[in-house]
Structures are given as C-alpha cells and as structure tokens.
Amino acid sequence: MSDEFKVEIVNPEKSFLVKDDVVEVIVPAYEGEMGILKDHISIISFLKPGIIKVNSKSGEEKYYVEDGILEFKDNNLSVLTSSIFNLKDMEKSKISELLKEAEKDINKSEISDQMKYLGDQKIDVLKSIN
Amino acid sequence: MASLDDLKKRISSVKSTQKITKAMKMVAAAKLKRAQDNAEKGRPYSQKMNNVILNLSNGISDKKNAPKLLSGTGNEKIHLCVVITSDRGLCGGFNANIIKKAKSYFLKLKEEGKELKIITVGSKGNDQLKRVYGDKIIENISFKNSKNANYFDAEKVGKIIIERFEKEEFDICMIFYNQFKNVITQIPQAQQIIPLNTENDNENKFDQSYEFEPDEDEILSNLLPKNISTQIFKAMLENSASEQGARMSAMDNATRNAGEMVDKLTIEYNRSRQAAITKELIEIISGAESL
User: Fold this and answer.
1) Best B57, B211, B234 residue to mutate vs chain A (most A CBs within 10 Å)
2) pTM for this one?
3) Which of B2, B10, B242, B265 has the fewest CB atoms within 10 Å, counting from its CB?
4) For residue B71, what is the enclosing H or E element?
C-alpha cells in the first residue's frame, strides 16, 4: 500500500505547486502546527504565517506562507494562499524587507489583537529563517 | 469634386491609420494570449475558494448568527455597484457593453426605489458614468500604472468594499465585468458578491463531513473577506482578457475598413485623373479644330 497523497498549492495567479507523491505535509495551522498524513480526516482550517514543509519521495521542500486556507479531502490537500515563497529562492534582502514591513504593521495603534498575534507570528518566523 | 492633391493626401492618411490599427491589433493579440493564460491559471484558486465556502456555509449551525458577509444585513435597500472597466479606449464595445448592462440595472433599482452607490474601477467606466450618475459615484479606482491585473490591486478594491460594508454603507454589492468567452464574444456579467449567493449548489457535495479548526464561524469570517478579493480578482482577470480580445477584433475591423477605404479612394483618384486627362485632350483638340 502506498502512503502517498496529492497536494496542490494555489495562489491567485496560478497553481503554485502540484505534487502527487507526498508523504507528509506540515502546515502552520491557526491553532498550531499540524502534520497531515495519508487518510487524514477531512478538514478545513486556515493558516497563520509560517513554514509549510512538504515531505515527498523526491525530498523535502519548504515554503514560507503568510496566510491561507487549507482543505483536506479524499487524500487531496489543497492550500489556498495569496502569498507564498519557496524558501530556497528567498533572498536575505527579501526577508528583511518583509520583516521591516511586519514590524511596522504591529506598531500601528489601531491594530486588533488578532492582527497583532498574527504579526508577532510573522516576525518570529521571519527571524527564524533569516 | 475633390482635387487630385486632396485625394492623394487622404489616401496616404488612411494608409497610415491602417498601419496604426494593424500594429494595435498585433499588440492586442500578443497581450491577449498572456491575459488568457492568466485568466485560466487564476481559475483554480477562485473555484477552490468557492468550494470551501460552499462546504463551510452548509456546515454552519445556525444561519442567523452567520457572518453578515454571508447572510446579508437583513435589508436590501442600498445597493453598491462595482463597475469594472478598462483604463484604455479603442477596444470596441467592451466598455460600452458593461456600462449598458450596469445602466439597465441602475434603472431597475430606481424603479424599485432602492438607493444606489457606485464604485468605478478603471477610468473609462468613470468617464461614461459620471455624466449621468456623477453624484452616485463614491469612489473611483484606477490602476493605470500596473500593467497586468494583479492580486494586490484586487485586494485593495476588496478592502475598500469591506470597509464600507462594515460601516453599513450598503446592503448588497454587485460587480459588473465582462466575461471572456472567446475573442469575438465577451459577455457582460452582473454578479452579486455581498451577501454571497450560495443557492446554486449541487447537493451531492455535502455528504462529506468536515472537521473544522477553529470552528466554522471563525473560519468563515476570516475567509469571506478573502473571497471578496478573489472574486474581484477573477473579474479583473476576465476583464483584461476580454479587453484585449475586444480590442483585437475592433482593430481587425478597423484595419479592414481602412483597406476598403483606400481601395475606394484609389479608384476615385484614378477616375478623376483620367477625367482631367480627357478634359485636357478635348481642350487641345477643340482648340486645333477651331483654327
């Protein structure tokens, strides 16, 4: 029995990644990191800023996401996100740029608690990969 | 009758117009290919988004407490119409079609005694609507500087709409855009985005039970604003493909018409040249005869 399933990551412009030999995906779900294996129960959740790890037969890939929704059904994982970057292609300057923006965002006065929480998350993640 | 010189000038001016329209057609054709690709690539996202929301809204326990973006405000008095057009002209009936569709909707609203607010996206729509509905336009957004439709711009529009919705400035939101069918056909569309229309679901999807994390309400309230931006982005992509398609066929027509005109003028030119020669000959002959 194979233990592979299909993952599809789409952003508004295009299908970002389609893979069908995935063994495990670790996603930064809103209430904590979540590992998804084959035959996981159908689930809908949304993402906080973090790293998506895709473990497939051909190796491990990491992506940085800022937000998104995830849906798992019939061994199909779809991740919808508006901002995603492959960690490999991300340059230091880009990271520090995002970091600066995030820091500016959370220092605004009219920010809600939820936004602040997400902003803090973003900064933590960005710092960890920088 | 125009003199030979005038005809010559007109022929050359029509010829250079033809050159321009031909070039514009070429450019539009190249851009169309790209816009079409983009529109096709963007489809999975909006489709998936739609599916998730349909599943979610079906799983929601009590519809009364559902987010207002889904269930509406309970009124339908004030309508906000977002009219998405292009920033450039010379694309045939493209903008006129959207405007026509929007205007007929505006009239219907007026008859029903509803209040109307308009947001125009793209400067051409604003130009055409501001004469009649100038006082109704509350915002005019234009993306002249961005070359292609991008999600960032769509998000900006989405944010504006949601902000206004939260201030309870309107109850129902419609977007108007052209759907791309093929190069010569674009269908003007009116789509309601607030409250979201979830009625046309097919039933068989719902036997699947989902686990939600966190609960449905929270996901929905997070998702719905995103869906607004997504729908607008979809509309913008369709629109830009339609715009190029419309421009291409309009310019194709213009090129052909210019060609016909050149032919017609050339015949007229030759004829009057011939007439002038004949006249001169007659003058010479009759002059010689009178001697």
Assistant:
1) B211
2) 0.84
3) B2
4) helix B68-71
